[in-house]
Amino acid sequence: MGEVELSCRAYVKMYLHACLFPRCSINGLLLSSSSAGGAVCVTDCVPLLHSHLSLAPITQLALTQVDVWCSQTQQRIVGYYQANACVLDSSPTPCALKIADKIAEQFDNAVLLMLDGSKMSPDYRVPPIVMYERKDSRWMLKDKHTIMLRQWEETRAIASQMLESGDHTLLVDFDSHLDDITKDWTNQKLNTKIAELASPANGNI
């Protein structure tokens, strides 16, 4: 597999999801609206759960709904992200591997991204992510030099700014949507806010 590029929007939403539920394991899906060959461009993400990550029926329901929405919006599911409740543990759990395997059945270059809770401080100078790729039916650590987060300084600043101003409370994951179906799990409000903040950063949303 070639390079993986993470957009500002995708990273900021993952970061805010983890910050909104700091004592929970959280997970979500990575999306791409690009059909570029070779590189995988993660342009957005859908936050899924913050409780009972291993509950198969809810995960299946979420995957199905996100898949339908993606087909309507010219996007596709290209990966999976997770942050473990224990900040010192950034290893993929059996649940993470199982969902990532399912995504890999549909998309050959699927990625598995773990957020490293021990490096989530706004002051940390490099993206707090650990990425895996599937090789010979196993998930292997991906060479960090093939992971790109353009405009990292700006992206980090936007994530910190949104956290400080309480904008992380705008984030809706699929769990919250199931509790109140009027809540929008596609997070259009949050996307707009990120886009407004990112526009000076060369429009990298």
Q: Structural class from helices and strands?
A: alpha/beta
Q: What is the β-strand count?
A: 9
Strand order of the largest sheet: 4-2-5-6-7-8
Oligomer: single chain
Mean pLDDT: 91
**Helix share, percent:** 25-40%
How does CATH name the architecture? 3-Layer(aba) Sandwich
Question: What does the largest sheet look like?
Answer: 6 strands, mixed
Overview of the structural elements:
- This protein has 205 residues and is α/β, with parallel strands linked by helices.
- The chain has a single domain (4-198), classed as Cytidine Deaminase, domain 2, CATH 3.40.140.
- The chain is built from 6 helices and 9 strands, in the order E-H-E-E-E-H-E-H-E-E-E-E-H-H-H.
- The strands form 2 sheets. A 6-stranded mixed β-sheet has the order 4-2-5-6-7-8, sandwiched between helices.
- Strand 5 (76-83), helix 3 (94-106) and strand 6 form a beta-alpha-beta unit.
- The protein is globular and about 45 Å long.
- It starts with a strand and ends in a 7-residue tail after the last helix.
- The model has no long low-confidence stretch (mean pLDDT 91).
- This is ER membrane protein complex subunit 9.
